[in-house]
Amino acid sequence: MKNIFFAFIFLLGVSAIAQTKTELQKHYEAFYTEMRLQGDVTGVINALTHLNVIAPSQQRKDTLAFIYANDNQHLQALNTIGIEKLDTDSDLAVQVKGISLKALNQPKRALEQFEVLNKRTPNVYLAYEIADLKIQTGDKEGAKANIEYGIANAKEDMKYAFYERQQPYEVNLKAAFLHLKALAIYNTNGSNIDEAIALIDKSLVLAPNFNLASLSKQALVARKEKPATENKK
Predict the structure, then answer these.
(1) How far is it, in rounded angstroms, from Cα 187 to Cα 128?
(2) Is the pLDDT of residue 193 over 60?
């Protein structure tokens, strides 16, 4: 009789825990929806974190990592989904890893992720990221194919954002590729400085507000004039 009684109490306890868990999940799902409507990033992160504890889901983890990355919390994003290159990763997870690793100054690891994403769904924006990272990691020759692809396929209405100033700005994507091409050419062979400057000039015609290209041109012009100045001394 005692065994039946304790079994009954145990079943009641399990049922209560299951009911509490279900209610908690419903609560945080409603909370998540409300926080999204209000645009409260901290609230959304809080809700997803609780949901991942109550009812773990890879899709929710990927979404949480994306929200962290979109809020410039890149370390938290990578702590959520890891940094490994996994064939089983969703496109969203690969994108988050690439963006966050690049933001944390890990260009080689970021490049791996962007190349995975580009194999799945090639596009000019990924080509730009890959070319930029290849230049950063010293693979100027490898960057050229991505740059030429980008120049050939970038449309007039495509823009790319830059953040080196306090106020972010956008430029014509083809202009961004021309600037990259100039850097790749100069870094491959410093004697091609005139060709690099000419490419930057083309870039600035397409995007007169391209501050980074203007700075690159100033640096190249100064480097070109430096030998002449040294000879006069």
Answers:
(1) 17
(2) yes
